[in-house]
Amino acid sequence: MSVLIVGSTALDSIKTPKAENPRLLGGSASHAAVAASFFSPVKLVGVVGDDFPKRYLELYNRHKIDLAGLQILPGKTFHWSGEYEVNMNNRRTLLTELGVFETFNPTLPAAYQKSQFVLLANIAPALQHHVLNQMRRPKFVVADTMDLWLNIALPDLLKLLKRLDGFVLNDSEAHQLTKEDNVFAAMKKIHKLGPKYVIIKKGSHGSILSGPKGFFICPAYPLHSVVDPTGAGDSFVGGMMGYLATARGSIDSNIRRGMIYGSVTASFCCEGFGLNRTTKVKRSQIDARVKELEKLTRF
Ligand code: AMP
């Protein structure tokens, strides 16, 4: 089965303490789609401007990402710029230019509307609703978000939570949403807002799932050096959804392993700028790191 992914398709200009790279292929949907593509077919919903480099379209194609839902409109592609501190867990946004995203109002191709697995990657909650409204009885819907939407679109986000199976957010966003410092207490409150599965990401410390079968602590793959963590969260949830879309059996019996695959895919994302590393990875390299994680966490 395929995964439908909507989110930002962007040009990212990223500055780390060691290097600076302008106009990389980025966006929440790009990272999630490439990650998911290692496991299942992907249908992308997004918009880019006529300045979007052809070689980036070719990268999507190389990952066999279905682009029937990617609009190319006259105007500028969404451009985001961020700068990391020496401690790469800290990042500040330098610039967000919406460009063609400002008026984006997608109508999904008929083949997209039947997708069973839907990932509403980070983008305005109104747009996440708009896409979900066009879906016919999806099996598993997961959304991601960011602090910006908690600040400026909370009512839309709260409405969205009621429609989700799963919600993925990082620890500071969980604190912002629930006012709870303790992640387990925060997850309990988030369940009450709708989603049956809540995943809180903790950056290089992994992630925690709270679901019908209890908690699962998912480790991050131990990396000795991080080049650029942009898109790691999107790669995590994209990898997990791609895995779930092809795994046999119930969500409950697969979601833990799905998180491990997501975690490993995210580790590759951190090893290069933008999507530079992820787009060169082979499935066998992902499987090898999953085996290593299995060994590391067995006791
Ligand atoms: P992450 O590192 O997981 O937070 O994701 C970073 C990605 O989010 C970058 O590729 C950006 O293009 C994208 N991004 C940044 N700001 C926004 C925004 N306001 N809406 C949608 N995507 C964004």
- Count the helices. How many? 11
Based on Cα principal axes, name the global outline. Answer: globular
Q: What is the C-alpha radius of gyration, as a whole number of Å? A: 18 Å
* Biggest beta sheet summary: 9 strands, mixed
Strand residue content: 25-35%
Our measurement of the CA-to-CA distance between the termini, rounded to an integer number of angstroms, reads 34 Å
Which spans of ≥5 residues are poorly predicted at pLDDT below 50?
none
Which hetero ligands occur in this complex?
Answer: adenosine monophosphate
Topology as a string of helices (H) and strands (E): EEEHEHEEEHEHEHHEHHEEEHHH
Amount of helix: 25-40%
Number of E-type strands? 13
Structural class: alpha/beta
Strands side by side in the biggest sheet:
5-4-1-8-9-10-11-12-13
- Look at the structure and give the mean pLDDT: 97
